[in-house]
Fold each of these.
Amino acid sequence: MTIVHDSVPTDLVGSVGLRGPRRDPAPLLPDAEPLRVLGTRAAVTGDPDLALDLYSRLVLGRRFNRQATTLTRQGRLAVYPASTGQEACQVTAAMVLADQDWLFPSYRDTLAVVARGVAPIDALTLMRGHSHCGYDPYEHRIAPLATPLATQAVHAVGLAHAARLRAAADPRASAANVVALALVGDGGTSEGDFHEALNFAAVLRAPVVFLVQNNGYAISVPLAKQTAAPTLAHKAVGYGMPGRLVDGNDALAMHQVLTESVAHARAGRGPVLVEAITYRLEAHTNADDATRYRSAAEVDDWRTRDPLTRLEAHLRAHGQLTDATAERLAAQAEELAAEIRAQFEAAPEPDPRSLFAHVYATPTSQLREQAADLDARLALDAEFAADNSHNFDHTDHADHAAEGAGGQLDRDHDGRGDLR
Amino acid sequence: MTIVHDSVPTDLVGSVGLRGPRRDPAPLLPDAEPLRVLGTRAAVTGDPDLALDLYSRLVLGRRFNRQATTLTRQGRLAVYPASTGQEACQVTAAMVLADQDWLFPSYRDTLAVVARGVAPIDALTLMRGHSHCGYDPYEHRIAPLATPLATQAVHAVGLAHAARLRAAADPRASAANVVALALVGDGGTSEGDFHEALNFAAVLRAPVVFLVQNNGYAISVPLAKQTAAPTLAHKAVGYGMPGRLVDGNDALAMHQVLTESVAHARAGRGPVLVEAITYRLEAHTNADDATRYRSAAEVDDWRTRDPLTRLEAHLRAHGQLTDATAERLAAQAEELAAEIRAQFEAAPEPDPRSLFAHVYATPTSQLREQAADLDARLALDAEFAADNSHNFDHTDHADHAAEGAGGQLDRDHDGRGDLR
Amino acid sequence: MSGAAAVTSEPAGTPAGRPVGLPAGEPAATSMTMVKALNLALRDSLRDDPTVHILGEDVGALGGVFRVTDGLAAEFGPDRCLDTPLAEAGILGTAIGMAMYGLRPVVEMQFDAFAYPAFEQLFSHVAKMRNRTGGRMALPITIRVPYGGGVGGVEHHSDSSEAYYAHTPGLHVVTPATVADSYGLLRAAIASDDPVVLCEPKRLYWTTGPLEETAPIGRAVVRRTGTSATLLTYGPSLPICLEAARAAEEEGFDLAVVDLRSLVPFDDETVSAAVRATGRAIVVHEASGFGGIGAEIAARVTERCFHQLAAPVLRVTGYDIPYPPPMLEKHHLPSVDRILDAVARLQWEQ
Amino acid sequence: MSGAAAVTSEPAGTPAGRPVGLPAGEPAATSMTMVKALNLALRDSLRDDPTVHILGEDVGALGGVFRVTDGLAAEFGPDRCLDTPLAEAGILGTAIGMAMYGLRPVVEMQFDAFAYPAFEQLFSHVAKMRNRTGGRMALPITIRVPYGGGVGGVEHHSDSSEAYYAHTPGLHVVTPATVADSYGLLRAAIASDDPVVLCEPKRLYWTTGPLEETAPIGRAVVRRTGTSATLLTYGPSLPICLEAARAAEEEGFDLAVVDLRSLVPFDDETVSAAVRATGRAIVVHEASGFGGIGAEIAARVTERCFHQLAAPVLRVTGYDIPYPPPMLEKHHLPSVDRILDAVARLQWEQ
Ligand SMILES: Cc1ncc(C[n+]2csc(CCOP(=O)(O)OP(=O)(O)O)c2C)c(N)n1
Ligand SMILES: Cc1ncc(C[n+]2csc(CCOP(=O)(O)OP(=O)(O)O)c2C)c(N)n1
Ligand SMILES: [Mg+2]
Ligand SMILES: [Mg+2]
């Protein structure tokens, strides 16, 4: 069995020629309105356990965002792009994936990474400035957080394609039916890589779900300057995949659409593009000053659509959330926050010798020379530090270069470059 | 008056939020069938002069393609990517533009360049291997033929945007209402630059017409491996611009759709994406062996839809083409071919000293040193050639490097790299 | 000839003679940050030349992530300072089209590593257009690239990419190390009829200094004379080299320091003279050493000054590794100690 | 640990001991073109290792525009040799994802200049992934880039882009100059657990030679010994250097010629020894000289061999201009005459 032959959609109604569309575009177009479950009958008839489960994850997620933001103020994180307000997207993205599936997060998606099981300290290693990726991608089946926008969407296609190839080569392999979920922002959809990813996925019929968290802004740039499309979900038709539009602040709707999309991909029916309409309630990162580009009124308006309060209101209205449960959840959230703080206390410094260890499988002779140079320098520094341990007044040339770096973290943050 | 404020489409029905699509997608979607005029009532009731004019241009265009292909066989062109079979696209692309408009051709569009008034020898300078762009872009308002695929589509957006900016700054300027027409192939639509060009154009509401000549192949790769979209024109909706589908081998239909699209752009209503369904009857270039990837039967099938024979049949059927006219056109075509051959006979060799003249406005000191080095070498060569003019047997080291190059042009062409 | 062509071939508006960028009355030597100086250079260019247009990500209301375009959209309107969609090839490609029509676009790449998506447009068009068209079509585009490390940026925010630019014929590549030069070089870049990549050392963005004159593209400047050996450096490493020179005094070495400013065109005259004067030289830069611009400098200095050299030209550069995470970057960056070590290795005991 | 991870960390299939790529019975020294040798290397790799997958533009039915993948889709099926959509970042990004899942993708970039759209994926991910993940995620990707001129290619078809790759830590960069090495280096690249950029000299595609062994990544080879001076070169310029060495004999010079083969890792040992043996050296390559790899070679050779050098290391390279049109390329390319001129400038009359 070959995958590539398989990739020509069975619903093609003709080949290139003068016969018009090769497939009917209608089923690919998103609904006119974003899917909502909260406030509809479906919310009432749906599984109450799921709703409560989602709510508890939102509570933890919110607390995670708050703790991380606090850590930036303490200078313990170099930077943190909070997903506050987008927790419904983050936690459902992690929930709907099976164990063998892969998540391709972007730099704002630390919470999704934690929700899939990575220890907070490891998920935040990048933001700490400690090392580039603090977790083992293979242990959790999560690619490193991607900073260059939309690049990870292409990787998701390649991985999903490879999984199909390997499953085809050995149908009994446990790797069968892997789905990749790629997270992209509304701004990221403008990058060429986004386009190439969607096109490759559709042509290869790769099992990928592209979830665009449309939070209305790319740093300061509002959606209206990013695209003139009816919706971002409408882009799907241009690739021949279905586009779905969903209320990203409705955890029940998010869960439903992502579950359906993952099932679609897993069934071999090709990729799906999901646009979740949401809002980032905090600034772009702690280094950003959001008042420069949006009004307090706009933010306040979106606070009324906070995914937590909406789900909480629903649960309370239907007697599915008692004060006791709410208190228990709040306590769990505090535990999580305390655990994060403890992990930060205990976290070791990075070892400078690691700089040369993983450039190649085996260091080149040039790197060995350079590593030796650094080793010698470190040894000298250690000696010097020992000699001077009682004297804090000395001029340590070797530390000079670090001053700039360390210095930055303490300064006023507006205009520090939003280092994400 | 500012352009950028102006760029938010007036038909937006809301801003980002939970209010669903910001504009109605329906008018952006292409028709289900490619527009055809030939064989419909419109062809009969249309302007017979236009039809005959189009036909005469097709005849000249076809002869141009044939002559250029012959020049490759004689080694007088390094390479030629023929547009044989696509002449209806090529000549209408040039025809529908006003004097102030700009054409952004891709490497297969030499014919469109000639149709807009560039002397054949200048349009073919690139393919001769003489110099990179043989015409003055400002004289003809034609960008250099672009080889890196889809890159020129972005330039078209920038130029059209700049023209609007300058017209806004000085409304009486003659530069007002410039339209840019960018030519892209079906393969080129997969590049990230295509995506970015369409998005920028739509967001800036730039007056650009993107014409995709879908000839079914990107070198050897058929459309079905290039995209899974219903049609390429469906991509338009994802950018918020109208998509149009047209029979690219129907010159009347091409003329109509491009005229309408240019008018749309010129009126300030933003960009348009046009997909013309056509076929390249020859190999990708003279260096290509098309039998490796498509059948003779397929090519023969498309010969029955040749844009020339279709328009000729229509004209003959309605008594609009007499034998006398046909003979006159054939004679004109032979004149064109003879003129091209004469231009090639008379064309001078390039001057090696030009290599350093146009790297910067003023050569750097480094380039002046290098130019002096080459000058000295050329002087020595000239001396040496004079001394040895009676002796063809000498070993001229300086010419060694050229052997490889010259040699390539004479060899069997299959697999020579399709140097486009 | 169209109107556009005429504009392109007109001499570019060069900065006028008045005290640059300062409100009337302010003393000419007012000290300001590099960010502010760059901002003033943009403002003065927008004011002096109506064909100047800024475009990039977040350059409008936000004023850029480093605030270099602060206030410009408000003052000159969104047409002159345009927030684009998030796509670097789109930004640079659009700038190319604008330049074709006679404008002078100034493009901001948000960070070094985010310029990479624009490399095809840069290498295949920006660098080559004048040459491709036999001199008929110039692209007077300025590409501003905040570069280098030392600011605690996470991965992809601290690359030193100048060698890629400098190896590409058709581009000018300049990099200021002082506030004065940041103003001067940016104005000169915008006024140039050639495309110029302005590599802005982000670790020096918040250094302060006086604003004086324009800086010519193509001229290095001797920042410190000396007799023992010559440090050749640029951009973010200049302050380190000056500090190393001061520290070396204690050890009895008198180091000259040359600030290259312009990588392309390269100022062979100034550099060779400075190296000949001491007979020893060290190139210092942040970028990885292998295939870095320091190699070019060492090679060409050696070609030109071979018999005046008492020791090989040494290099103190970033290691040949991906840029490290913030907590480790101090080990990677050239430091005073590493420079002093190199000085010690300059074969004094021959 | 997932299955994918296990596969990634398994030792790569190294070429087996049998006569490489030849049908049983054929003599081992059969002469063939470089295109054919590369084709055989791919075929043998596909056959020996089920995780090897080829992807690129036109690599399927057409067999690539240079026919390097001829017959592979037919023999191994479209899954193993995939015609992709026309988008280089998409191709390389997809290969990254495939490598993450334990495959060994071999990517064909159709021409040098058409690799530029993939530079963000290359610089920010391919080169860095192992480092970013603390060694946990390797990307054993081979990137084949036909490069250089001399084949009459129109603009954008003759760039020499090796310096961009070589300056990017995390990539290996190799380039064969002989048919034997083309087979050996491609097999070694595919077997490597690191990403390897294989720069294939297109002007040598149709040269013929015997097919022998595998070539190790990281080792230069002395192609000709000599006593007067050492030519350091690689890829497309090796035949010119060998011819120059023969021509120099007439003028009384005995030139050594070193074929670097591997730009990264660089074989300092072989190169320094060869230069010390003669005391004079010239680097020859097609790429523009400024910031080219020749600068690195000149700089590091000088650092290591300073006191054995009787003259500065000279460079014979392409000029600092965009690659010329076919009718003029002979003037740009290093030629025997230009090399002999450089030899004459090696200060013989000290
Ligand atoms: C290729 C690239 N260009 C620019 C940046 C700088 N940058 C980081 S985040 C960001 C905005 C992203 O917006 P969006 O995709 O909407 O995601 P959000 O921040 O809203 O989650 C920008 C421009 C980058 N990381 N990568
Ligand atoms: C960026 C880039 N990648 C690859 C190529 C090599 N190439 C030249 S033409 C071609 C196929 C183009 O197909 P299409 O866009 O359909 O145009 P057509 O040849 O059919 O006119 C390819 C792959 C190129 N010129 N530019
Ligand atoms: Mg966003
Ligand atoms: Mg095509």
Amino acid sequence: MKKLINKPEEVVKEELQGIELAHPDLVKVFYDPDFIVRVDAPVKGKVGIISGGGSGHEPMHGGFVGKGMLDAACPGAVFTSPTPDQMLAATKAVDGGAGVLHIVKNYTGDVMNFEMAADLAKEEGLEVEAVVIDDDVAVKDSLYTAGRRGVGLTVLVEKICGAAAEEGRSLKEVADLARKVNSLGRTMGMALTSCTVPHAGKPTFDLPEDEMEIGIGIHGEPGRKRMKLQSADEVVEMLMDPIISDIPYKSGDEVLLFVNGMGGTPLIELYVLYRKAVEVAEKHGIKVVRNLIGPYITSLEMAGTSITMLKMDADLIKLWDAPVLTAGMRKGI
Amino acid sequence: MKKLINKPEEVVKEELQGIELAHPDLVKVFYDPDFIVRVDAPVKGKVGIISGGGSGHEPMHGGFVGKGMLDAACPGAVFTSPTPDQMLAATKAVDGGAGVLHIVKNYTGDVMNFEMAADLAKEEGLEVEAVVIDDDVAVKDSLYTAGRRGVGLTVLVEKICGAAAEEGRSLKEVADLARKVNSLGRTMGMALTSCTVPHAGKPTFDLPEDEMEIGIGIHGEPGRKRMKLQSADEVVEMLMDPIISDIPYKSGDEVLLFVNGMGGTPLIELYVLYRKAVEVAEKHGIKVVRNLIGPYITSLEMAGTSITMLKMDADLIKLWDAPVLTAGMRKGI
Amino acid sequence: MVITRDDVIDWIKVYAQLLVEKKDYLTDLDSAIGDADHGANMNRGFQAVLSKLPGMEDQDIGTIFKTVGMTLLSTVGGAGGPLYGSLFIQAGKAVSGKMELTLADWADALEAATTGVVSRGKAVLEDKTMVDALTPAVEALKESVSKGLSLSEGLKNSAKAAEEGMIATIPLVARKGRASYLGERSAGHQDPGATSSFYLVNTAFKTWTNSHK
Amino acid sequence: MVITRDDVIDWIKVYAQLLVEKKDYLTDLDSAIGDADHGANMNRGFQAVLSKLPGMEDQDIGTIFKTVGMTLLSTVGGAGGPLYGSLFIQAGKAVSGKMELTLADWADALEAATTGVVSRGKAVLEDKTMVDALTPAVEALKESVSKGLSLSEGLKNSAKAAEEGMIATIPLVARKGRASYLGERSAGHQDPGATSSFYLVNTAFKTWTNSHK
Ligand SMILES: Nc1ncnc2c1ncn2[C@@H]1O[C@H](COP(=O)(O)OP(=O)(O)O)[C@@H](O)[C@H]1O
Ligand SMILES: Nc1ncnc2c1ncn2[C@@H]1O[C@H](COP(=O)(O)OP(=O)(O)O)[C@@H](O)[C@H]1O
Ligand SMILES: [Mg+2]
Ligand SMILES: [Mg+2]
Ligand SMILES: [Mg+2]
Ligand SMILES: [Mg+2]
């Protein structure tokens, strides 16, 4: 295992210490339980927005704490959902009197831990709503699975809801907005290589030099199918087709197109993919009106990509364009 | 070779097409010769700033074209200096009547190609100054080498000179500022893995599973020495010591600390490194007053890091904090 | 023959020790159909439990179980945290105030524990989860109680049933948790959570039988 | 026996063809002590030259050389671009207007070419660069001319000298270009630029000797 770390057990703590030292203008970091809050939290009268999940997806979520996005993030161990005490403490820390929204990615662990935190918070008299994000079209959405995973769309939900909260919308409005975004966005990912979880010490899966996995998530979990390497253009088609046909997006739709790097994929490749993704969208009459290109929701050093499309309307565009000041995303401030 | 590309020969063109589609609000892209210019170039009365170099270091340089940073970037083939006709055309495109500064990383190819471009531009009556960046302490600066390489500091020079040009400083002032920054900053890098140049198709060097290279550049070139893997903290000490003793930085100095990812290193590790780097700086009485953490000058998918320290003063801090609006770095706009 | 408070503490200690040994194996199982962290998660949780044991030693068994559960809840994370947390918290409620357990008490405790897991995670039998190891163990215990078998025989039966349940997860297609994303590709692999649950039941058998030999 | 304009065009075509074959080898050499692009760079440049050849065919040799040089300058990039660009541009200046070359003309051309490379890159002998292949080739040509040797003998001597110069780069520690960053670690590897320069001189020998057999 080749990593720039000290001990696997210390990675998350030391990362938090690094974040604390790096961004005292943006965030405060708390330990035991671990969470990161916006430096000026709680913001009085504003809905607080919290997300969290396993570490290893940086900049998500800790890098999105700040004005215009998240009020707090709760990092778990690498790829392991955080625990309810973290979310409870973070909820209390960001409650400005207008209630707190939990943005939860749809994984059994995340959902259960957030649920317990919300129950505890409600018992203490706090107003909490939770929205579960499940945008991954790689997973069959059936009664016989844990449902679709929450992946790339989460970044967009956090940005858009963060802007809405900043505008002064109510908890119900922001939660409904999160559900709306969740209903309008879809993602599909693929990997060229596995990642290595620090405490596991070896790649989660072995992928021969001439093969790739289609339909991977963000935890080094294997995908739905394995196949021979294809060109960038073919990969884009394989990712875009199931996205477009799922909602389904239709001619005339305006979308935000998000080409995400999984951590080990150079930016130069993401632009090559973006070029083709726009072409595919246009072939369907879909107009790309906003975009996001880069490693925003990663899977450690995995080489691969995910593509997210989100149907936009005037309100979503306004919220997307609103100012944001975080370590991982910045606009207008 | 596992890459999300189509043909190796097409990577740079297709990347440029992606950039053109993604950022029409920020840049215009020209082909044959290839270069990227700020959408509002030439800015009348402002010194134009150009940089360029081989591709594969994204977001540098193309991602730094925009208000407050570069007026144009000239991308060569992967890891290959661009050609004089690119720099000549870019120089003409950004000349707003106040002259053009070429920011050149110190590699034989880059220096020669930029020199020829500057000569041609001068023959056409343009006012051009060139500053060569050579901040890499891994290379012995002797008469018997091509001198030190230009690495991480280049990003900081581009940001700071971009702000100075935006302020309306003269070509001479901006060029002197670039030289000043170059004299106050030092970088050292290391790699855990090699990168693979697309047209080479295989890793540039082989690094056993338990070894790392210290003193690498940004082109997959081997470093100065190879050794057994060490912990993150030890790596930071190995990179910081030669930096601190080179200028030498002294107790009381205020610095910008830049922990750069080489492309394949997750952000979580960069924060672990940053934490230790601050500790080492403080042990020497050096105060970190600004920072930059992330993959800004990369070497394709190489896993590794470089650390840059730049001695700051009030003017440099003001210029560093000034607004910038590019795809790869954004503040205040 | 009863299970004393010391037996319970021993059980937890031995299980924590076993997790240190089995950590990599559990993680390997989780690599195949999950995200390669089940071993590390369980180990982190039980190391935390170990460090809290000194404070628990003069509590009743119900309180001990609840403290273990709360500790797991705040240290394990992932799916394992709430599930093993609920398991111990519900077991604790079932034997609240008791200073020793009969086989029947233990059957009640593990039944409540399993119900806790099921109501938290909504898994049914053959979803390829820890429930597949726990449910047969509970049934074996209850049957042993109703047949009037000895403590050690009852424990043995439950361990055997848990083991069979664990092995029976191999061919299953997962319908809960992370492995369910794999669809058909999840078949052919043993479930990590069923494995750690088998260890739990098996460690009870081994530790408590040993102390009553 | 002289080198005709067609010979010159043939030489360039054969060299471009050879680069297609040797591309990976040159890149391998550049991987060891550089950045793994010399083969791709040279190949890209000479493919561009090939595509411009039709327009050059009725020009004088000086113009042909200059056009090749300008094309390389705008397509090769890296160190190779300005160096091989200068090489051809300066060679072109030396034989400006000529429609055929004697051995003495060719010696002048290659000397001017080498001087062009040296004045652009500031390398001296034994810096482990293409100069180490070119300089001995020029000397061998000049000596052959002064001894009154035939065209084919002169070309053969120059190819042999270039080859020896190329091989002699192996033990050297680089003092110019990217390989110099490696310090002592650059010793033991053959310089890629010296290799592509040897091919250039050797292709002249082979092509022109063939056409005059
Ligand atoms: N809904 C569920 N009900 C019961 N057990 C479950 C459920 N979901 C997952 N599990 C169990 O949890 C185990 C995985 O735990 P762990 O790896 O610690 O968490 P995560 O899946 O969050 O990484 C699975 O092997 C399975 O036995
Ligand atoms: N200053 C110089 N003078 C002469 N030749 C040089 C000089 N620097 C580099 N070279 C030659 O250039 C070759 C490398 O060319 P290439 O790989 O195309 O460019 P780059 O080094 O920019 O990647 C070296 O092998 C060497 O022969
Ligand atoms: Mg997990
Ligand atoms: Mg090069
Ligand atoms: Mg797991
Ligand atoms: Mg090279």
